[in-house]
Amino acid sequence: MNLRISDVMTQDSVNLESESFKDKDELFRHLASLLYKSGKIQSQEIFVESLYEREELGSTYMGNFIALPHGKSMTVNNPGIAFCRCMEGFAYESQGEVGQVKLIFVLAIPKETDPNDYLKVLSMLAKLLMHDEFINELYSSLSYEDVIRAVKTYESIVD
């Protein structure tokens, strides 16, 4: 399986106009609702539980106003990525680290997915987020089409 971010991020799972969140739980529930609406998951509650299970293993706060929470669960129908941009950052706590976040990508991975494939997608996303130009495009995007164009452009650069 050779998943590309641009293959699994749908218009239904991108929110560019989010208000700030009061906490991580509110964020997780919002992102789970986007994945549910896009048909990627069967249960918002079970997926949120998988996000918290993953949080127990290590921080998903990446610094630079970015968080990459992810969950692997039986409730995931198909791999998916939800993206949320908050113009006002909020305090994101993960494994004792606290930082302001504005850009959040959440990965929904089916339980049976090979761990290497899962890590490849996560690694690709992390590589994209190392490019300041990519991050700037995410901040300036006006639509899903802008976001997906930026993802495809930088996927081809780091691939």
Automatic annotation (TrEMBL):
<dbReference type="InterPro" id="IPR002178">
    <property type="entry name" value="PTS_EIIA_type-2_dom"/>
</dbReference>
<dbReference type="GO" id="GO:0016020">
    <property type="term" value="C:membrane"/>
</dbReference>
<keyword id="KW-0597">Phosphoprotein</keyword>
<dbReference type="InterPro" id="IPR004715">
    <property type="entry name" value="PTS_IIA_fruc"/>
</dbReference>
<keyword id="KW-0808">Transferase</keyword>
<dbReference type="GO" id="GO:0009401">
    <property type="term" value="P:phosphoenolpyruvate-dependent sugar phosphotransferase system"/>
</dbReference>
<keyword id="KW-0762">Sugar transport</keyword>
<dbReference type="GO" id="GO:0008982">
    <property type="term" value="F:protein-N(PI)-phosphohistidine-sugar phosphotransferase activity"/>
</dbReference>
<dbReference type="InterPro" id="IPR016152">
    <property type="entry name" value="PTrfase/Anion_transptr"/>
</dbReference>
<dbReference type="Pfam" id="PF00359">
    <property type="entry name" value="PTS_EIIA_2"/>
</dbReference>
<dbReference type="InterPro" id="IPR051541">
    <property type="entry name" value="PTS_SugarTrans_NitroReg"/>
</dbReference>
<keyword id="KW-0813">Transport</keyword>
<feature type="domain" description="PTS EIIA type-2">
    <location>
        <begin position="7"/>
        <end position="154"/>
    </location>
</feature>
<protein>
    <submittedName>
        <fullName>PTS sugar transporter subunit IIA</fullName>
    </submittedName>
</protein>
<keyword id="KW-0598">Phosphotransferase system</keyword>
